[in-house]
Amino acid sequence: MAARMSPPLPVLFLGHGSPMNAIEDNAFRRSWQALGAELGKPKAILCISAHWETRGVYVTGNERPETIHDFNGFPRALFDVRYRAPGSPWLAHRVIELLEGIRAHSDPARGLDHGAWGVLQPMYPDADVPIVQLSLSSLQPGAWHYDLARKLAPLRDEGVLVVGSGNIVHNLRMFRFNDPTPYDWALRFDEEVAEHIATGHHEGLLGYETLGSDALLAVPSPEHYLPLLYVLGLARDGEPVRFFNDNVASAISMRSVQIG
Which residue among 43, 54, 227, 242 is buried most deeply as judged by most CB within 10 Å? Predict the structure, then answer.
């Protein structure tokens, strides 16, 4: 009798917002906690974070990745966080194998930045799921990242949860810390992107800068947007799409997406 194949794991794009969401008791953190409980423990996690930009493609190869505190001006309690999840040399090797034709390298010194541990610590507080980060080759266009993600499709059938961590709208220069009222352009862009995702029209999102003047304000630099394209690249035809945390505060969208 043939063994029953498990369904593919879903893919996630998590709007991570402020690093303080990792430790504050707020709706965002609670949603990540609930998500981890709902999904259960995967074999490993591959995370694409807005906060690791490189020239070329790299994966973390450290068996015990350090917790990187790549921010300033926050309370001591945030700097005291240590997320001691193990790395996964197996997964790092597998990613490099799947990206044949793209020169990917293992970085044995790189730890986990807050785009990764900030959302994964609430999801898996016991730090018992191995994590590998994949860097963003920041000089490449959106279509290149989308196509790269498609090469990683077998991971979903191998027990690996792929998580993109960024923000659809992310303009810190225009962010109003004392007024969360969303800008009209931020709401429009967030809703336009959501419509493309819901209808499966990914092509229009690859060159986001072609979406009009709202895009230039919503995505002044691509690093927080690009992780979304990895998640879209891993989507399969007919899979359900679920939005959550669909909140826009000033110039940051926390909208998150689960596909599958």
Answer: 227
pLDDT in tens, 25-47: 999 999 999 999 999 999 999 99
pLDDT digits (tens, 9 = 90+) for 9-21: 999 999 999 999 9
pTM (global) more than 0.90: yes
Rounded Cα distance between 200 and 32, Å, is 24
Number of structural domains the chain divides into: 1
SS3 letters for 58-110? Answer: EEECCCCCCECCCCCCCCHHHHCCCCCCCCCHHHHHHHHHHCCCCCEEEECCC
Answer positive or negative: Cα dihedral of 46, 47, 52, 56.
positive
Which CATH number does the domain housing residue 83 bear? 3.40.830.10
Residue 98 forms part of a structural domain: yes
Identify whether 116 is part of a domain: yes
pLDDT of residue 5: 62
The pair of structure tokens assigned to 176 is 């109003």
Nearest to 239 by CA among 257, 220, 214: 257
